[in-house]
Amino acid sequence: xxxQSDFNPxxxxxxxxxxxxxxxxxxxxxxxxHTSDPYRIWLSEVILQQTRVAQGLPYYERFVATYPTVxxxxxxxxxxxxxxxxxxxxxxxxxxxxxxxxxxxxxLKGIFPDSYHNLLKLKGIGVYTAAAIxxxxxxxxxPVVDGNVYRVLARVFGIDEDITTTSAKKTFAxxxxxxxxxxxxxxxxxxxxxxxxxxxxxxxxxxCMLCPLQQQCVAYQTGRQQSLPVKAKKAAVRERxxxxxxxxxxxxxxxxxxxxxxxxxxxxxxxLLETDEPKMMLRDLGLTGxxxxxxxxxxxxxxxxxATQLLxxxxxxxxxxxxxxxxxxxxxxxxxxxWYLPDEVRALPKPVLxxxxxxxxxxx
Length: 364
Prior knowledge:
Elements lengths: L8 H18 L11 H10 L5 H14 L3 H5 L3 H8 L6 H15 L9 H4 L7 H12 L8 H11 L8 H16 L4 H14 L18 H5 L15 E12 L2 E6 L10 E2 L1 E5 L13 H9 L1 E2 L4 E6 L3 E11 L2 H4 L6 E4 L1 H6 L4 H7 L6
Parallel strand pairs: 1-7
Antiparallel strand pairs: 1-2, 1-4, 2-3, 2-8, 5-7, 6-7
């Protein structure tokens, strides 16, 4: 196992210089690289935390157009903000974005903290995001360490510690801090190492033949590109079984807001019954109360429609049951449900699973 004492100071110096030279010739033209506005840098980093650049770029552009300043975002209705975020997943990011915007706009008079340590005090801004904002917006000499950086450092310097462990995080943080001290421009260096990991030293099939760090890369010299960095296996995916009841009346749909601390909090979906195992027959669901009444008195209009959505640690297996309910039944709403016209449904923030189900069905 490599240790911090194994790193060669000369290689460290060449490393920073080589990366910046590579970056100046290969960097992608991305809008957040043309600003020192901490709001826009923060926005881009939050969007890209769990999202590829190609997917995140149009979201960034829509957010900047809709909320050009942190004050504009602070004044937004959360429902509108979540609707704009729809499709990016990890919706807690959007809620934290909104809460932090309110703090900056109100408590800090619209001015972001200009140091790494003060940025960390804001909700939803962790070590990586604080470092990115401090570096890119204010030129602070603090390293960013994300998945791309872990991969580059592990391969080039031959670090075979499990990156999910606390000790490994300290090892990488120490090395990253040493490396950025060698860089003439810390902001450019941070951009360079992240970009290098994104398009050169990729997770699968890195471009080693044209790599400027080839001769000093331990992984290349020892044939360990695919085994570094070391990362513990992911936890098993949890299977969940959702039975959705899609009630219609006079062209309206019954939806409800998800208020529990669970997936898709504050998004909208249909009446739901979750079971511990798959159930293919309505009679096996054990319906009770108002939901049972609507099912019994409604007219089922189609066979159940299956759908699946894979989240980070969960697989949602859904069945959609469609019912028309008569006017007399429609007036006695089960708790939490409300009627919405098609245009109102379109405007609600919804999970991708619901968006995909509604495609082509909303105006029927």
